Amino acid sequence: MSIQTFGQWLYTTPVAATIRETVWIIPTVQAVHILSIAVLVGSALVSNLRLAGVFAADEASPAVIRRYLPRMWSALGILLLTGLVLIVAEPGRTLNNAVFWTKMALVLIAFVLTLVFQKPLLQSPPGGNGSDRSAMTKPVAWLSLALWTVVIFCGRFIAYT
Description:
DUF6644; membrane; transmembrane; DUF6644 domain-containing protein; transmembrane helix
């Protein structure tokens, strides 16, 4: 079964029809999706700017990561749920869209970077500065910020492609 065939089938399901026809569902889900994006990107911004040495330099990196990484995971979970609802409602708009798949790949890459470079800092003692002194930390922090920025733009452009 092709993605296009699957999308056409999904569009005709009663669940998809209910989501599309109930006037408040899509705007509510979109609002929650956008608020979750703000939480995720805001947390990534603070965490990565700390790792880049630009923000909260007086605070240990592990402390900043401990504070914001759980928020990123929670926001990602909400984004996956709300995104799934939006896909079910209009599968043709997303599943056949190269920008959507680019966005999904970039989200995956950004979270792998987060796991590889931020999660180890959680193992550091609360007062310690952790392993954020590696030569790769700053470039990876900036790369992560760039990835999240492109993810936001891709999300916006899904509607126009």
